[in-house]
Write a structure and sequence with these properties.
It is a single chain. With about 350 residues, the protein is mostly helical. It is built from 20 helices and no strands. Helix 2 packs antiparallel against helix 5 and helix 13 packs antiparallel against helix 14. The longest helix is centred in the C-terminal third of the chain and has 28 residues. It is globular.
Length: about 350
């Protein structure tokens, strides 16, 4: 039943792009899938962090640990906690999506395809991601003043997000995408990546772990360093390349097929610059392949920027240019889903549990 519900909602999302009723139904479906999910890859770890937070000192960020203790102190179960946190995350995400594109259902339609199933599994990172998505509003807003307070708000949001998942600090570099043009962004990103290759060593990582009070987690990463095979690292780098290549294909297709106004063109170019900046994660992959998630988490930003390129449609008439862009976006989302979820063991631990193990339907 959930498979059919998801498919129907996705069709309505992609065709009724501005319907408030469809938006409500879509968010309710996402909430049900998330809040009542069970049996996925990280469920045991997520439950352990919740019920035995004291055992994860040095391995859990302070903000997340504080939430765990707060909910435990009032006797809230893990299942009820997940209902609350899912609603909170979707509220933050939807507030940004609705604010910055009129075609908001299109964004959630693509998000449901990919990478929503991954976000359901990665609870800690998704909580941080929801704050990052909320903070995007401060990047979209430009000011001609010498001091732009929106940049300060963005930095504060990213620091807050890092209290729930430390990898969120990577998004601080998205300020480069706001301040510089494409050529400058490429140069700066290459410089940062090269500096990362030179400066990021087990010693510096250990030091950073002590500063952010995550020594236990950092020690675990370094302990597993030799166990991470070149094959796994190579496959992760391949996935990063595929994701970026697919984004570029969509970017150039949309630019060639859409009559963009100045604002939409700037937003699309901004997405391009953000996708270039995030490639600075490459030097970090040798220490943890999970850093590729920072790139995947740009999907909502990309979808917002793609959605704004769709032109208005007259009732009863099909805009062929819109149809081409929608089909291309759906295909790219499915390809990403295939490479990152379906074409490996994630299909059994990430995809199937989302639909087959929902507690509401057991």
């Amino acid at each position: 039943m959930l498979y059919i519900s998801a498919l129907l909602v996705d069709v309505f999302d992609l065709t009724k792009k501005r319907s408030k009723i469809v938006l409500f139904i879509s968010l309710m479906l996402l909430w049900v899938l998330y809040a009542f999910s069970s049996g996925n890859a990280d469920e045991i770890t997520n439950k352990a962090r919740f019920y035995m937070s004291s055992n994860f000192i040095g391995m859990t960020e302070p903000g997340y640990a504080l939430i765990m203790r707060a909910f435990n102190s009032i006797g809230v179960s893990f299942e009820f906690y997940k209902m609350i946190i899912a609603a909170f995350e979707l509220l933050l995400i939807s507030s940004t999506v609705v604010k910055f594109t009129k075609n908001y259902n299109f964004v959630f339609g693509l998000y449901l395809i990919f990478p929503f199933c991954m976000d359901v599994v990665q609870m800690r990172e998704t909580l941080a991601l929801s704050i990052v998505v909320f903070s995007l509003r401060f990047l979209f807003i430009h000011s001609n003043k010498k001091y732009d307070k929106n940049n300060t708000y963005f930095v504060l949001c990213i620091i807050l997000a890092s209290m729930f998942h430390s990898s969120s600090l990577i998004y601080m570099f998205l300020l480069i995408a706001k301040k510089f043009d494409v050529k400058q962004v490429i140069g700066l990103s290459l410089g940062i990546a090269l500096a990362g290759l030179i400066l990021i060593t087990p010693t510096t990582i250990t030091l950073i772990g002590k500063i952010i009070n995550m020594s236990g987690k950092v020690t675990g990463l370094l302990f597993k360093l030799d166990a991470v095979s070149w094959r796994v690292t190579r496959m992760t780098l391949f996935r990063i390349f595929v994701y970026f290549l697919l984004f570029l294909l969509l970017y150039y297709l949309i630019k060639s097929k859409s009559a963009l106004d100045g604002g939409n063109k700037k937003k699309l170019d901004f997405a391009l610059k953000c996708n270039i900046v995030i490639l600075i994660i490459i030097p970090l992959i040798k220490y943890s392949v999970d850093f590729y998630r920072c790139q995947i988490s740009l999907s909502i930003l990309n979808y917002i920027c793609f959605a704004d390129t769709l032109s208005s449609e007259k009732k009863g008439k099909i805009n062929m240019r819109n149809a081409l862009i929608i089909i291309a976006c759906v295909i790219v989302s499915i390809v990403n889903l295939y490479f990152l979820v379906i074409n490996n063991n994630n299909i059994n631990t990430v995809f199937y549990p989302l639909f087959k193990n929902n507690l509401l339907y057991k």
